[in-house]
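Supplementary Methods S3. Complex input for the pyridoxal-5'-phosphate-bound model.
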Amino acid sequence: MNGVSHDLLVPPPTQLLKERIQVPQKRLLMGPGPSNCSPEVCAAGSLPIIGHMHAEIFRIMDDIKVGLQYVFQTENPWTLVISGPGHLAMEAVLVNLLEQGDTMLVGVNGLWGDRVADLAFRIGAKAVRMETEPGNAFSLQEIEAALVSSRPKVLFLVHSESSTGVMQNLDGVGDLCRKYGCLLAVDTVASLGGVPFSVDKLKIDAIYTGSQKVIGAPPGIAPISFGPRAVEVIKGRKTPVKSFLLDMKLLSVYWACSPGDVRFYHHTPPINLFYGLREALTAVVEEGLPAIWKRHEENANRLRDGITGMGLELFVKNPADRLPTVTTIRVPEGLDWKAVTKHAMEKFDIEIAGGLGLTAGRVFRIGLMGYNAYPEKVDRVLAALKDSIKMAKY
Ligand SMILES: *Cc1c(COP(=O)(O)O)cnc(C)c1O
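Predicted complex, serialized as structure tokens:
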């Protein structure tokens, strides 16, 4: 006997027996993510579980791979899904591309660049911060000057700074990175699928996104892709990647990314999330990227017109820098922003977000992503915002 009897130290928690799981059925998620999924995607997620080495899951993974190559607009063979949220894909890019003492140049104009710089520091790399005010993007001249002075191994830019609502223009950045001999890594968690984008045309070497934002799948898995220059750097590392789970040399074999890869057990991935993503990608392919991009642009304009029509001010001054998928609105002087988001949730069951990091207390954030980027939802969130501001003022 090992001293353990049938007497329990911790009694059964009765709260689990009182009622079954309670989830709001109709909450409209108009923050910067997660976004609502279609009923088809939700249904796919509840299909029976199969094993991670069964032939059927390999087919689903292959379908996801080609679906993601389409959404990323890339021919990269190393295109797959990280078993974790956007943050884990961010970690995957950094731990695979950087070694102890390497320098990474990071554009910091909001929370996400700041987080990436912090992560680089945690893994023993040197992060050089290129900064600008929240609400601004970086110009090609600013980027070139920072590349010249820091000569990094990797330049990291956030394409969709969802904390400020800024979209970073990436035209010409890939060429600059080649000129100065560095890799280009990009976070597109809040934008990919919702704006015209091409990984290969933009010459991006490492990229990731989220499943739960524009793609319209459940949260917890993160699409990622590495181009040939990044793969070469990873294969030429002097030290092993410090994470087994995120080691792309191993993970790409489980995903059979290269000819001759013999799949092996690496870890048990979230099978049901794969089903949801597979279904969401089918919807993307059915509608087609150009139509989806157009739909996001039109609905973002409808939202912006509604906001300015109410007398509110958009946070991002330069219209060209405005992210269509996350719109930021300046909180009017003296308005209790928390009362606004609370009222929208309680009366309308609609999520409107406040700011994050440097924009906390300064902005409202409204997301228009995937399944939610439709006129009727824009109109619902505008009506809820209007009513909630009126309520909060009194
Ligand atoms: C939401 C978001 C993330 C983080 O994604 P999680 O799935 O919550 O980890 C990273 N970057 C940007 C730009 C985001 O908007």
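Residues 32-33, 85-87, 112, 158, 160, 162, 187, 189-190, 210, 219 surround pyridoxal-5'-phosphate (CB under 6 Å). The chain has a mean pLDDT of 97.
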